[in-house]
Design a protein that fits this description.
With 594 residues, this protein is of the alpha/beta class. It has a domain of 308 residues. Helices cover 37% and strands 15% of the residues. The strands form five sheets. The chain has a seven-stranded mixed beta sheet with strand order 7-8-9-6-10-11-16. A five-stranded antiparallel beta sheet has the order 3-2-1-4-5, with helices on one face. A hairpin with a 5-residue loop joins strand 17 and strand 18. It is globular, with a radius of gyration of 25 Å.
């Protein structure tokens, strides 16, 4: 258990390269520099932890998994090799993977082999403009349950996704964000910006500095002695890429490690110093692109209806733009700067040889997520319609764009719909020799009908949050059209269908409806040109999500704290079910579903 694990065993269980940054992982021997005899880049490390039941500071031992160098271990307290509770693999840049977790096994299981394996890695990046609500979105999404309420036969469900316990070190970043979210609920303290510092728990360096500072120094010393330019690299060890927020799941015996990197919006500015991190986007399996309604050019027009005249305008804007930012610069300046970043992300995703576009041919999910849908919900309560949130015809064009490109994918055999989605797509397709003009009228008919139905604030909220069933009636307006009646399933029905084996690459009716409405709203947020380009790339899988992590419109109490605009509302418990967030989690775990 505490000796060196054979090379082929580590490679079989984890592969040879970190899925986050590409550094060495496990027993991979980095190439040697011919002149100095040093490794050209940092090897991987094993960290063993003697937690001693939490009664004292844990002991530790660090072993470099290349060469034959003696390990370093703690002396105060002394490391006890016979009392190891957790074992971690650290890649060449410090990303943390669980090698073994003896502390999780006791009783009849205490003699089982506790070495961890990963059958599949699933790496997801999240991008968006500063203060777009990414962290609130992720921390609530990761705490959604995929179990159906009132479902009594879960043990017989072959598609059930079960979460595995995280070891303390790999759980630290998520635990940090959970604690900060709970502070928002407790006293309104807003979560700090993602890009604050590379020494924070968002990076491997910060995690090790917080929990095992002497082990960090031992690793840095090994890097300094054994790696080319080690003196310079040792000081930067663990600062290259953030430690992802991790979910480890089991579905039908298939174990998947899902890491979600919460990237700062500043990464996409021309002045960003982290361009290497941006380039790693091309190796990820999915990209969550968070759109912020509050910074879109046309949002000021309809957000005026949401304002409370009895509350200072800067506090209301600060609640959506981040507390304290409106005092330091005018609201218009903040909006314009963040809108430029939001628009820049769209341009960089689509350009050839950009961070993503040169990966053409490898299927990639683009999960376009509209955060702060509580603002849109509040606007609908004040009499707005979904189509009025954009300029004339903009929202309708976006919804029709998604339906049209989805129809094309289905016609070409690249898309598998469920029964309800297939029925709707079949209506849009019409007869084999139907003219294109008739097809277009049907697409616009359905798009207009969906937008009209979900302009009712209760129906919109059922899609975003409550998860209730909807009965959508779509009238006909020409001879080429026929009235349509859609029963959009409840969230629990959707979960029942989505968890069946083999459904990971399907589009279900509730997905189709949410994506059509979401694409329309994304066009209203200024992303029409970028999204239209993305939909024309067959290797991109486009889906849209409507989410509200805080569920109610926040305002700034001061430069650091938030509170609900409606005094009768409160921010929700972290695990409270929300339909849009659950949809998003299902999409994130697509590779984990069996």
């Amino acid at each position: 258990m505490n000796g060196r694990t054979p090379h082929d065993d580590v490679a079989r269980r984890f592969g040879t390269h970190c899925p986050v940054c590409g550094s060495a992982l496990g027993d991979t021997e980095p190439p040697l520099d011919s002149e100095t005899g040093r490794y050209v880049h940092s090897p991987s490390f094993r960290l063993e932890v003697d937690d001693s039941g939490g009664q004292r500071e844990p002991g530790w031992r660090v072993t470099m998994l290349a060469g034959n160098y003696p390990p370093a271990e703690s002396t105060a307290p002394p490391f006890n090799p016979h009392s190891v509770d957790y074992v971690y693999l650290l890649c060449g840049d410090g990303h943390i993977f669980p090698d073994a977790t003896p502390a999780f096994h006791s009783g009849t299981q205490r003699h089982r082999d506790v070495r961890q394996r990963v059958d599949d890695f699933n790496v997801v990046a999240t991008v968006g403009s500063p203060a777009s609500g990414k962290t609130y979105l992720l921390v609530r999404t990761l705490n959604q349950s995929l179990d159906q309420r009132g479902y009594w036969h879960a043990e017989r469900d072959p598609g059930r996704i079960r979460s595995r316990e995280l070891a303390p070190l790999e759980a630290l970043p998520t635990r940090t964000w959970i604690d900060q979210y709970n502070l928002t609920r407790k006293d309104g303290t807003a979560i700090a910006p993602t890009s604050d510092t590379k020494k924070s728990a968002a990076y491997p360096h910060g995690i090790m500095q917080r929990r095992f500072p002497m082990a960090l120094r031992a690793i840095q010393e090994l890097v300094r002695r054994t790696v080319l330019d080690g003196g310079q690299l040792a000081g930067k060890w663990g600062e290259g890429f953030r430690q992802p927020l991790v979910l480890r799941t089991d579905s039908g015996g298939h174990r998947t490690w899902t890491g979600i990197a919460d990237l700062p919006g500043e990464l996409f500015t021309e002045q960003s110093a982290d361009r290497r991190e941006a380039r790693m986007l091309r190796s990820f399996d999915a990209l969550i692109w968070v759109l912020d309604p509050a910074v879109a050019a046309g949002a000021a027009r309809w957000m005026r209806k949401v304002k409370d005249p009895d509350i200072d305008e800067s506090l209301q804007l600060g609640g959506n733009l981040r507390p304290g930012t409106v005092d330091k610069a005018s609201a218009d300046t903040v909006r314009v700067n963040r809108e430029a970043i939001q628009n820049g992300i769209g341009r960089r995703i689509t350009v050839i040889d950009g961070p993503i576009a040169d990966a053409e041919g490898r299927p990639l999910q683009i999960l376009v997520t509209i955060s702060k849908c509580d603002l849109i919900h509040a606007a609908l309560k004040k009499g707005c319609t979904l189509e009025s949130l954009g300029s004339a015809g903009e929202v309708l064009n976006g919804a029709a764009t998604f339906l049209g490109f989805t129809l094309n994918q289905w016609s070409a055999g690249r898309l598998r719909p469920d029964e309800g989605a297939a029925r709707l797509l079949g209506y849009l397709q019409g007869a084999r020799h139907a003219p294109e003009s008739g097809r277009r009228r049907r697409i616009e008919q359905v798009a207009h009908g969906l937008l009209g139905h979900y302009s009712a604030e209760k129906e919109f909220w059922a899609l975003v949050h409550d998860g209730g069933e909807s009965q959508v009636t779509i009238p006909a307006a020409s001879m080429a059209e026929h009235p349509q009646s859609l029963r959009v399933p409840s969230l629990d029905e959707h979960l029942d269908s989505a968890r069946r084996p083999g459904t990971g690459d399907q589009i279900l009716l509730r997905d189709l409806v949410m994506s059509a409405v979401g694409c329309g709203l994304s066009f209203a947020l200024g992303q029409g040109a970028a999204l239209n380009s993305m939909h024309q790339e067959p290797w991109l899988v486009m889906r849209y999500f409507l989410c509200s992590p805080l569920t109610t419109v926040p305002v700034a109490r001061n430069d650091e704290q938030l509170e609900p605009l409606d005094p009768d509302q409160s921010f929700p418990p972290i695990g409270e079910r929300a339909a849009g967030l659950t949809h998003l989690l299902l999409a994130v775990l697509r590779r984990a579903r069996r």
